[in-house]
Backbone:
């Protein structure tokens, strides 16, 4: 696979895996803070690993910074979307 395809695979994995684990943890424990902070930590670790990989394979500075910006936006979007998803699961489980 090319680096461009791997970039999108890593971006998708860094978005989907923490979200699925967060929803699973929330349904299992019904603890919003625990689920959110565990998945946020996992999200940050996976995003940093993918960003360091992208930095190591990219030689063009513009492509590198543009790719890093997408990784950062994806990480923040996941935190926001996941918080609201976990919050709605909590309200559903408590009612």
Residues:
């Amino acid at each position: 696979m090319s680096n461009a395809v791997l970039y999108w695979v890593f971006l998708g994995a860094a978005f989907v895996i923490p979200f699925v684990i967060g929803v699973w943890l929330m349904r299992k424990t019904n603890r919003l803070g625990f689920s959110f902070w565990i998945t946020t930590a996992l999200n940050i670790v996976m995003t940093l690993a993918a960003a360091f990989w992208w930095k190591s394979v990219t030689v063009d500075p513009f492509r590198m910074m543009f790719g890093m910006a997408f990784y950062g936006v994806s990480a923040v979007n996941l935190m926001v979307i996941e918080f609201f998803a976990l919050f709605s699961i909590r309200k559903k489980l408590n009612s």
Observations:
- The CA atoms of residues 32 and 87 lie 7 Å apart.
- The mean pLDDT is 92.
- The helical segments are 3-29, 32-57, 61-94.
